[in-house]
Amino acid sequence: MKKTTSLLPLFKQFIRDSETGKRLKKNGEKITKNTIDNYRYVFNNLTKFCIEANFDFRICNVYKLTTREFISEKNYWKKFYKKYTDFLYKKGCHDNYVGANIKTIRTFFNYLKDDKNIPTSDFQKLFYIRKEDIEILVHSPEQLKFLIHDKDFEKSLTPAIKRTKDMFVFGCTTGLRISDINKLTNKNFEKQNDDWYLEIKSQKTKTYSFIKLPDYAVAIYKYYKPKSSRIPIFKNISLFIFNRNLKLIGEKAGYTQPIHMTRERLGKAKNITINGKQKQIRFCDKMSSHMMRRTAITTLLILGMPEHLVRKISGHSHASSSFNRYVHYAQAYIDKEIDKVHSKLESY
């Protein structure tokens, strides 16, 4: 009879070892808090799945199995993958979320094999990781110019909302993530002759950036500049409040045009719905911190900066597939603008 070991306690230990630094990344760095939080989400999903589906989430030593038992074990993990992904899809999850769950479980299997010396026979390779291409939403150069230069609009904002607007403009200019913007201090700003530069190491990618700042970005820095180099430039703001403020800014700016959004389940695009009814989504409803980096990259591309220089600023490698999505988006924008010009030439 096969001897089995329950996996939920081992998954708890996997999280604990990642949190304490006992388990590290391949490059020797500690696992980030966000990644550990994602591990906890997967653990919670697995716990609920085991209860609701009455599924015994376990593993056994494959070295002690007969050929027949090995085939049975392989079928068990195929069954787990099918049941677990069905469980997530029935809860309304999309391909990216389901794929992220499966990716974490595959990582957990590698931990069992490499750190706990539990022979898994690489059954995790049976788990397919689905991905979906979500539409890239960015501010056009015209929208960005409005937020930068319209003084009447700026005067209509409360100080707290204005600070969010200025942080957003700064992020759309530099391509920084919100986590990096929240950590900016006077030490990150350097003046050389008459020019100001931003020098920063990305918290996520650990890459260094040295970016020349335009006058309006320098003005934002000087407006919020604290006396002490220990105090963050913009003061910390929660992601929830930041995104909520952005939606208010977008609505006040008139960015209320409807947009069509789809998400994928099992590779098939589905219209976004609420309670079975299609939801009318406005551009302002989708404004979030993610737009800053996307807007910065596409704006640089749209306005003609060579790709290799944009990659250097954004920290994308030459082979980055995610960067190529920005290139395709920028090309679509350029094509649209060219069509406007050509349409004026077609009539005589």
From TrEMBL:
Q: Which GO terms describe its biological process?
A: DNA integration; DNA recombination
Residues of the Tyr recombinase domain: 142-339
InterPro entries in the cross-refs: DNA_brk_join_enz, Integrase-like_cat_sf, Integrase_catalytic, Integrase_recombinase_N, Tyrosine_recombinase_XerCD
Q: Which UniProt keywords apply?
A: DNA recombination, DNA-binding
N-terminal signal peptide? none
The source's superkingdom equals Bacteria
Q: Does the keyword DNA-binding apply?
A: yes
Any one Pfam family match given in the protein's UniProt record, by short name: Phage_integrase
Q: Coiled coil located at which positions?
A: none
Quote the Gene3D superfamilies the UniProt record gives. Answer: 1.10.150.130, Intergrase catalytic core
Which terms in the Gene Ontology molecular function aspect does this entry carry? DNA binding
- Name the PANTHER family for this protein: PHAGE INTEGRASE-RELATED, PROPHAGE INTEGRASE INTD-RELATED
**Which family is it part of?**
Belongs to the 'phage' integrase family.
Per its record, how is this protein called by name?
Answer: Tyr recombinase domain-containing protein
Species this protein is from: Flavivirga rizhaonensis
